[in-house]
Model the fold of this input.
Amino acid sequence: MLILSKSDISKLVSMKEVIKEIEESLKEVVLGNVWMPPRISTKIENNKGWIGIMPCYIKNKNALGTKIVSDYPDNNIKFNLPTIMAIMIISDYKTGKTLGIMNGETITSMRTGAIGGIAAKYLSKTNSSKLGVFGAGIQSKAQVSAILNVRDIQQIKIYDKVQSKIKEFVRDIYNEFKIDIKEANPKQVTNDSDIIVTATTSKEPILESKWINNGTHINAIGAHSSTTREIDTQTVVNSKIVVDSIETAMKEAGEILIPISENKITKKDIYGELGEIILNNKTGRENNEEITLFKSCGLSVQDIATANIIYKRAIEKKVGKNIEI
Done:
């Protein structure tokens, strides 16, 4: 069994490669070539925690695996641990034998960043140059990296309620990408950005619809339960709504479910899934005036597609440690 650490994984795959792999895999979902049951999850109420189990089989890639992921919002403050932690298990599709176990945090970050980049590719204006980001954590860095792969971004504005995190984020993004990036308040982040990313732990809306210009694209990344959201109802009402999975969104996406409970939208107001747009079954952005909203819940196909190429690359390059259990 091959064991891959976080440092091993970072050497093996680029964001550009992950974007390509996930884009192809989302097509396979629409074409019916992916077995991907809804994730099994449980809440750990006493510690505000959540655990999810996400299996997936991608037929045309012979990729079989399972992700075990946790989300504990207080981890960073109380224990100096990541909010989201995960491991990936890669299995032999022929026998079920476990082939590898790898750190899942980097994979989670990269695949969520990648799908945000894919959404921006198909739903944002092609001349988008200004990016606004809510949240200065690991996922926001991944979103920036992915969006820079698909759009010629010239300026980034960042907001986070924790001042020290903003300074670190600005430094890291500038050092890696040499791009104009500055701190801003929520209104400034929103009202002149072509693309907005929300990647926070907030349980309440952090955007006001009156700040959002026509033509804006929004990636709503952070919230993933039926009772939490980062985007207010009016923004959802004003937007063309695209999701990674309608089935999952109707169970977990507070951005969708809360407006439905308020009788402001219905399930029919969800325009479609990102995979349908990639396959040209549906049109992405149709003009420079519409507001587009991509709500990501996170699908196991994204994780397993990413983990599969990492595992193959590790075997090829002889990276990681082999152990017997």
